[in-house]
Amino acid sequence: MHIGLIGGIGVAATIVYYQRLTAAVAERGATLDLTISHGDIQTLIQNNLADDRQPQAEIFARQIDQLKGAGCDCVALTSLGAHYCVEELNALSSLPVVSGVAPLDAYFAAEGLGTVGLLGTRVVMRTRLYGQLELTRAVALDDEIDTLGQTYQDIAVAGICAPGQQAELLDAGKRMVRDLGADAIVLAGTDLNLAFDGQGPGYRVIDALDVHVSVLADLASGRLSLDEVAMTR
């Protein structure tokens, strides 16, 4: 199956999707058919912060039309923050949109996680992953959502994580485990690998990107069909 990715939102996240998806498909003994359309992170940030859903969905829809023209069978957004406009996008999209959010609830439950702590965009933390968790409870540092959301945004735009930013995020995860009862910290922002990769923070960390990549790799390798996959909702 030919996979389409809307990338560039941000660039570092797109690179990690590409690296991990190619590796996952290779592990399955298959060959990856992939096309990436580059999006503009600044436009996404502006629309996200203003909760302008329709304009962003229209931008994504145009990119999806291009991906369809390139032969893609389905598409995925390389940003959980970008999922804020999926309802509007589904009404416009010419291809099935494979969710990065929908598979998470079942994954957390299968891992025996009762409570997860969230790091990501302001909207992701404030809405507790868009209210899509039913089997697992999500928590966040509510008094610090704006500060942590800005830190994440700065990392996503720059494509690098400064030592002070890394320390801030690692400590936020620690406090959600210690004070809010989180069984694991979920990197619900696809650029957060820049802060957490190679670290041993002393608590369990789950990269939501890896859950999404696993689904896409199963589609690309023919292990799953689109009818068997939770689409974006």
- How many strands in all? 7
Q: In angstroms, what is the radius of gyration?
A: 17 Å
Return the string of H and E elements: EHEHHEHHEHEHHEHEH
* Strand order, sheet with most strands: 5-4-6-7
Domain unit count = 2
Name some characteristics of this structure.
Rossmann fold; alpha/beta; 2 domains; 48% helix; globular; four-stranded parallel beta sheet; 233 residues; three-stranded parallel beta sheet
Overview of the molecule:
The model has no long low-confidence stretch (mean pLDDT 95). The chain has 2 domains: 2-99 and 210-228, Rossmann fold; 102-208, 3-Layer(aba) Sandwich (Rossmann fold). It has a 4-stranded parallel sheet. The protein is an alpha/beta fold and 233 residues long. The protein starts with a strand and ends in a 13-residue tail after the last helix. The chain is built from 10 helices and 7 strands. The protein has helices at residues 11-27, 41-49, 53-69, 86-92, 102-110, 122-126, 145-158, 163-180, 193-196, 208-220; strands at residues 2-7, 33-38, 74-77, 115-120, 137-139, 184-188, 205-207.
